[in-house]
Amino acid sequence: MPVRFALAAALLGDFGPDTPAAAHVLVQPDPVSSYALTTGRAWSLVAILLGLIGVVIGGLALARSTGRIGTGTGRRGAIVALVAGPAGAVIGGLVVAAAKGGPGTGYGIVGGFVALAAGLIAMVLGGLVLTRSRRAG
């Protein structure tokens, strides 16, 4: 009898003929594939996408506000970054809060943390652009 069956049988207190099957069910990890797109992973991908959109547009708006790229204040880009960033951060936070397991369990917890970070960066970039546009205008 393998060790995991023996441990499960000792915990169950039953050494009958059906113990190995019951122990196998208890010890079996979640059958989620590493490549399967679960709902948690899908929501974390949406959150990451929103956060990255906010970071890219906020970075471009910041570059415009400093006069490196094009002309103008980049105020619209700041608004987009300040909308997309918090949206990604909130969705990422909900994914992290709803996750019942750690990395690799299919709940999207790693993507949720990445979305939180990207959303916070987008908020900071959008805030910087708005602060600079108020000073210039």
What's the arrangement of secondary structure elements?
Blueprint: H1 3-12, H2 19-27, H3 39-65, H4 75-98, H5 109-136
Protein model, in words:
The chain has 137 residues and is mainly alpha-helical. The protein folds into two domains: 1-31, no CATH class; 39-136, no CATH class. The chain is built from five helices and no strands. α1 crosses α2 and α3 runs parallel beside α5. Mean pLDDT is 79; it is low at 22-29. The chain crosses the membrane at residues 42-65, 77-99, 105-130. Keywords: Membrane, Transmembrane, Transmembrane helix.
Give the assembly state of these chains.
single chain
Globally, the shape reads: elongated
Query: Radius of gyration, Cα only, in angstroms?
Result: 24 Å
- What's the number of domains? 2
State the order of secondary-structure elements, H for helix, E for strand: HHHHH
Percentage of β-strand residues = under 5%
Keywords: Membrane, Transmembrane, Transmembrane helix
Protein name: DUF6223 family protein
Organism: Nonomuraea mangrovi
Transmembrane segments: 42-65, 77-99, 105-130
